[in-house]
Amino acid sequence: MAKIKRALISVFDKRGVVEFARELKSLNVEILSTGGTAG
After folding, report:
1. Which of 28, 32, 37 is nearest to 4 (CA)?
2. Taking CA 16 as the corner, what is the angle to CA 4 and CA 9, rounded to the nearest 5 degrees?
3. pTM attached to this predicted model
4. What is the pLDDT of residues 13-23, one digit of tens each?
5. Are 32 and 8 in contact (CB under 8 A)?
6. Angle at 36 (CA atoms; ends 33, 22), nearest 5 degrees
7. How far apart are the C-alpha atoms of 35 and 29, rounded to whole Å?
8. CA–CA distance, 6 with 23 (Å, rounded to integer)
């Protein structure tokens, strides 16, 4: 199975997204977000 290297995150409801992003980061996944997601 291929290892995930990057994840594109675009959400409307941001509840739980910080924990999700932290888990991705702990797995050395590069996180990209859309403009409205970062704020």
Report:
1. 28
2. 40
3. 0.72
4. 889 999 999 99
5. yes
6. 40
7. 19
8. 13
